[in-house]
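Regression test attached.
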Amino acid sequence: KQEVTQIPAALSVPEGENLVLNCSFTDSAIYNLQWFRQDPGKGLTSLLLIQSSQREQTSGRLNASLDKSSGRSTLYIAASQPGDSATYLCAVRNTGFQKLVFGTGTRLLVSP
Amino acid sequence: GAGVSQSPSNKVTEKGKDVELRCDPISGHTALYWYRQSLGQGLEFLIYFQGNSAPDKSGLPSDRFSAERTGGSVSTLTIQRTQQEDSAVYLCASSLRAGDSYEQYFGPGTRLTVT
């Protein structure tokens, strides 16, 4: 059974810092991995989708990497801003399944 | 264009009552997914539809939960005889088709509180 863990559970940084969020998964037979952000009381916004054949994806100040064999992904946020404050979730889709299996989330607070 | 919409946004119900939650997927999306987000369990898959059929219902927690989809569009998740542990945010997502390369887009959710 796929299990997805995110570390740290919460993170507080001053504006401008670069930061890394971690995601690990137990079953490496994944088709893709997705990073989402969730703002309080809102749904999920997709940030980056990495296919299993890819090593990384970039969008603006965000960069996500994937090491399928070791069951790890990282989300790098450069020059953090207060608007980045949210909960970040990673989710994997196992090969042959349609459902996403979500991690436990990292709650990020960026102070001005 | 319009995203995934869900109604109601909030629902408070008494224990033992039945509730219906509605999801309108993005127009043209043939696959639809239901997830539940609760404090104790995180975000969990419930069921998904491809068209009007549900190939995977493995996440439904008990036979009090059911879902249907008609016309390949709107879906309704029904919880019968609600219990306090059913309190959660119910999220719906849709994708162009069910398949490994298709991204899921999420709605804002319905917050269900069972008193």
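Expected vs. actual: identical. Chain B is about 0% helix and 50% strand.
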